[in-house]
Amino acid sequence: MALIVQKYGGTSVGSLERITNVARKVIQHRGQGHDVVVVVSAMSGETDRLLRLAKEIDPHPNEREVDVLLSTGEQVTIALLAITLNKLGCPARSYTGAQVRILTDDAHTKARILDIDEERVRRDLNEGKVVIVAGFQGVDANGNITTLGRGGSDTTGVALAAALKADECQIYTDVDGVYSTDPRVVPNARRLDRITFEEMLEMASLGSKVLQIRSVEFAGKYSVPLRVLSSLVEGPGTLITYEDAQMEQPLISGIAFNRDEAKLTIVGVPDQPGVAYRILGPIGEANIEVDMIVQNVGADGTTDFTFTVHRNDFDKAMGILKNISNTLKAREVKGDNKIVKVSLVGVGMRSHAGIASKMFRALADHGINIQMISTSEIKISVVVDEKYLELGVRALHDSFGLEQKPEVAR
Ligand code: ASP
Ligand code: MG
């Protein structure tokens, strides 16, 4: 017998029919002798609808009140699921985040979980009940309702699983697992049987939107085995787990990409201490997140400095850079907001040479110019013109044979 935490996203509880479908799944797992704790999101579209209402009144609504408002979405679904389960003869009880006591800090609309009092949940489980907990919400030390940021129900599920030392946290969603890349770009992309937390974090932060990043960090930190699977079709999904020394690791697990990038270059700045700081300091102060940074080798006492930002921040960053360029007496400021980032991710890279050259060759064979390169232990990213995104991702997927069972690092 195992203790399983199951999280169902908005589409999985988007109608009474779907809620009944969830109830059947829960009953099926209970029938196999497992204890089940269920975390649910609001019905699909509900959080957006509520947010729109608030913004109709005030474009910058008071954040404490936004949390009071948004938390109602999940309160509806926990109750509807409990009513359904009870009707089907399966004893169940629902709790809001505050009732469980999911204690968070007081950062409204993006609170972090500090502690979970799992007593109440355990008592109900011991009495043979299914426990249903509202995702995405908690309560601060002063009793104010908080929410965990968009997509936060994933984090509730993982945090509860960690607190209860559950055997597995199952995230049910509208896709049947994590894929080698986005199947909308590469139709023969393959569902991965497993992927490590580290790889999943890279995939998630590089723009693959299956799970809230924070939930993956949490799962990695507390070693909660996480499984992504579909609530609509049967299947094993994808297991996200720690790296097992006994297991052979695939060389490349997946390809992530991000379309929202922009690139800025300041040409001919003095090659002196403090220059990088004088460029990036004001960018940071303006709350613009910088992703890749490249500084050229200096020649004749000057150098070029290039970095990437989110496309939404492009105009703002260009404005700042033009100011800096005057004080630094730079030769020129250039910008390009039609670029994308494509990344290969795989823990097997650690122990294997030649991945980068194979990647660059595949891109070259397709006439794709690489504008920037950055690497970490388990990923290689390149910046290319946005018109090459699909071609580039397909070329890499093909040349690394990702549509087949993975090649392993030895
Ligand atoms: N309902 C919240 C949202 O739409 C939380 C979640 O679904 O995870 O962001
Ligand atoms: Mg979600």
Descriptive notes:
The protein is of the alpha/beta class and about 400 residues long. The protein folds into two domains: about 5-240, Acetylglutamate kinase-like (Carbamate kinase, 3-Layer(aba) Sandwich), CATH 3.40.1160; about 250-400, 2-Layer Sandwich (VC0802-like). About 35% of the residues lie in helices and about 30% in strands. It has twelve helices and 20 strands. A hairpin with a 7-residue loop joins strand 11 and strand 12. The longest helix has 25 residues, at about 65-85. The radius of gyration is 24 Å and the shape is globular. The mean pLDDT is about 95. It binds aspartic acid (ASP) and magnesium ion. Magnesium ion binds near residues 10, 151 and 153.
Structure described in brief:
This protein is α/β, with parallel strands linked by helices and 410 residues long.
What layout of secondary structure does this protein have?
Blueprint: E1 3-8, H1 16-31, E2 35-40, H2 46-57, H3 63-87, E3 92-95, H4 97-100, E4 102-104, E5 113-116, H5 119-126, E6 130-134, E7 137-139, E8 145-147, H6 153-164, E9 168-173, E10 194-196, H7 197-205, H8 213-221, E11 226-230, E12 238-241, E13 249-250, E14 254-270, H9 275-285, E15 290-295, E16 302-310, H10 314-328, E17 332-345, H11 355-365, E18 372-376, E19 379-385, H12 389-399, E20 408-409
Helix pairs in contact: 1-3, 2-3, 6-8, 7-8, 9-10, 11-12
The protein binds aspartic acid and magnesium ion (MG).
